[in-house]
Amino acid sequence: MSRLDVQLNRLSLKNPILVASGTFGYAREATAFAQFSRLGGIVPKTITPQPRRGNPTPRTVETSCGLLNSIGLDNDGIDAFAAKHLDYLLGLDTAVIANIAGHNADEFVEMATRLNEFSDLAALELNISCPNVSGGVDYGTDPSLTAEVVGRVRSACDLPVIAKLTPNVTNITEIAAAAAGAGADAVSLVNTFLGMAIDWRRRKPVLGNVVGGLSGPAIKPLALRAVWQVAQAVEIPIIGIGGIASLDDVMEFMVAGATAVQIGTANFYDPGLACRLVDELDALVAAEGFENVSEFVGTLTLPQQETCPT
Ligand code: SIN
């Protein structure tokens, strides 16, 4: 066992640092900046059964410490993914986790069945949390729909299944518990927070889709809270996502209960960050005298509650 390898039920990763879907293209785009073999894994942009043009432009806008996007799952569809990108991705010396989205459970199952043919894929991440399309996000906002889609995908394919959860719900722990109960190997959280930007002088929304998903450092405390809450509620491993941009951020998520993390928005301004974090994490685990990074997971201790004298 190396210092950094982690196990998320059926998914083995050489280290806990992944790059998040939609922030690293199909990896080729980042060739000049990252040595892919150093990463724990790559999650390429979400694919759908059919090509999608995505939402009207503008589709991104920078906000205070964050990024709003309303891409709308623009992608060439699963056939193009299989024909143009999969061979390349599976030739990289790192785990490749395909991220899929469907309008309904049948579409998720259809895609999972197709991708099951590629046994070198490390796992499937189910995007039941995109805030920018109608139809898909409902699966991540209702525990029974989450259970249905996770359970059916789990039965239809042999690959490990990760459910990517939305924070745009009243109680994310219920959704995580539904995913766990239906057989998810892990949950990844959080996807973006629904937000908007306004150009008040023009009296217009900035995004063509009016609303979009907020990511980046602005959401880190919210994501950390969600990871910590979910860690109290489920037994399955958690992949933490949300504004992670430094080694301290990685450690905060792990101590809160994440077994692995995904670097997202930071890839846009520092595509070499994820690789550097792997080295920094390795050095930190050694310096702390630990044998494996997973010893940090869920080690948060809470302040003792003082009891008021009656
Ligand atoms: C998008 O394509 O709209 C973003 C993907 C997501 O939030 O899941």
Give the CATH architecture: Alpha-Beta Barrel
- The number of strands is 16
The molecules bound to the chains, other than polymers, are: succinic acid
Q: Per the principal axes of the C-alpha atoms, what is the gross shape?
A: globular
Give me the strand/helix succession: EEEEEEHEHEHEHEEEEEHEHEHH
> At the third CATH level, what is the topology name?
TIM Barrel
Overall description:
The chain contains eight helices and 16 strands. It starts with 5 loop residues before the first strand and ends in a 23-residue tail after the last helix. The protein has a single domain (6-296), classed as TIM Barrel (Alpha-Beta Barrel), CATH 3.20.20.70. It has 310 residues and is α/β, with parallel strands linked by helices. Helix 5 runs parallel beside helix 6. The chain has an eight-stranded parallel barrel, surrounded by six helices. Strands 5-6-14-11 form a four-stranded antiparallel beta sheet, with no helix packed on it. A two-stranded antiparallel sheet has the order 1-2. Strand 1 and strand 2 (11-13) form a beta hairpin. Bound molecules: succinic acid (SIN). Succinic acid is lined by residues 22, 46, 69, 71-73, 127, 129-132, 191-192, 213.
